[in-house]
Fold these 4 entries.
Entry 1:
Amino acid sequence: MQVPLYQAKAEFFRMLGHPVRIRVLELLQSGPVAVRDLLTEIEIEPSSLSQQLAVLRRSGIVVSIRDGSTVSYALAGGDVAELLRAARRILTELIAGQHELLAELRHSEPPVPAPPLP
């Protein structure tokens, strides 16, 4: 039985739903990055990074590249970078909207009455 498209999309977004995986994908947008450099940038335990890289590799959105003893990772395609850029645009709009709403709330707040004098 085939998985409905909406379910496949939900599983895809769930796979992206970890801060370390998002950070790895952000770092890989400019090209392949060695694991040692990912560790330096993300500052987590090697075993934790390895687990998150395995999830990304199994999903097919990153690939590993071995050059001697150095292992690097790269995005499997450019669509993931575009998805991250779209997420940034959406978040920017949401946050800007929240700031506008907050300013409106502050501006429309009735003045607080002064406490009665004793």
Entry 2:
Amino acid sequence: MNAESDERKSAAVPAPRDPATGDVAGAEPELGSKAPQFIKASRALHLSWQVGVFVVGLAVVAAGIVMLPLPGPGWLVIFGGMAIWATEFVWAQLVLRWTKRKVTEAAQKALDPKVRRRNIILTVIGLVIIAVLVGIYVWKFGIVMPWKINE
């Protein structure tokens, strides 16, 4: 009945914290620059730090874009560049949060038994169709190598 004692009870119970990071469990980390304090203290130094982070992130993202059509982990490198940008820029942090949320939702959806069953059925149907088409091609044309090798 006493509002003051209710406030003390709710204020006395600390929110659970993650032992690894010390952050409040379930809470997302704060947005903003992760630069060291001595860099944030000087405006010119912080601005040059941000330019450096942007240039390094841009180089990594550009390398990832080049790797999309070429061999290499293109998307992984692009997200690595976004993570570099997220150390300094709020917009990149928000993009990474959104991406993480969508990937988590997709993973949960993929674990749903109905979705897994549907995916397996569609995969089997696709493989059967490909096998039939390959069989028809081999039956009609035989196995002929595209190059001419005379022995």
Entry 3:
Amino acid sequence: MAHTEQDTIALAELLAAWVKPGVILALDGDLGAGKTRFSQAFAKAIGVKGIVNSPTFTIIKEYEGECLPFYHMDVYRLSQDEADELGLDDYFFGDGVTIVEWASLIKELLPAERLELYIEHLGDEARRIQVTGIGEGYASWCRAINEMGAGR
């Protein structure tokens, strides 16, 4: 549970501390739930300088972080076929870390292993963030979050 925006930022910072090339964060949630805000906090935590905004109309934005590239995607306006033609594997299996907003729309194209986050708006700044690790590496992240008490 994220009671405030700062709680959402803290989760983004925690996950950013664990990233390595090829990490995939698959974000979903209602409009206005905080997917882009989470992405901004994550980008800042990995050392991306400047403004990170929603790639709704550009689909994919690439940024340089301090240690690795950050690929920020918004697939809300894409069909499965259109997304398939973008060569997403080059990003998913490349040298950077990728956040995909509206990831459930292209679930079949996502790597078999990923961290899924569903952000639900509960009013004011409160959010419920469900984190699911698909694959052992990401499942271990979820266990660590739960052990810290951040998964409630």
Entry 4:
Amino acid sequence: MTATDPALTALAQGWCALSLLHGRIEARIERALQTRHDLSVREYSLLDVLSRQHDGEGGHLQMKQVADAVVLSQSATTRLVTRLEDRGLLERYLCPTDRRGIYTDVTEAGLRLLDEARPTNDAALREALDEAARNPELAPLVRAVETLKATPAAA
């Protein structure tokens, strides 16, 4: 393929449209969460991911799994955890069966904030998708997002 190959050009345009849609959605959600709850999109995502943990076999996530879920490096995830821990929204403790393992859990205050912020997140997502659906270039991507079924992420 060459730089002027129509297939490559179409692929690049599709990627640009997807990137544009993602950026618009994230910016809309970021503004809403910051304004109403003093949370960033990444902070909200981290609270959400960690709130879905449970005790027992396979219930707690390793930091790499958390980092993958919130799409950050492990070091950036650790800094994010520390910020939320300083705000009293998360707590870390040693794994009772493996003293090398450190778990991170959402505190009661973190769960309350997450419950308060979830409708804001959902409304901002809906607004961003509705706005993007009016753009002919983005409308097919919006339809694709709306038809996706929740499935576990592939490793």
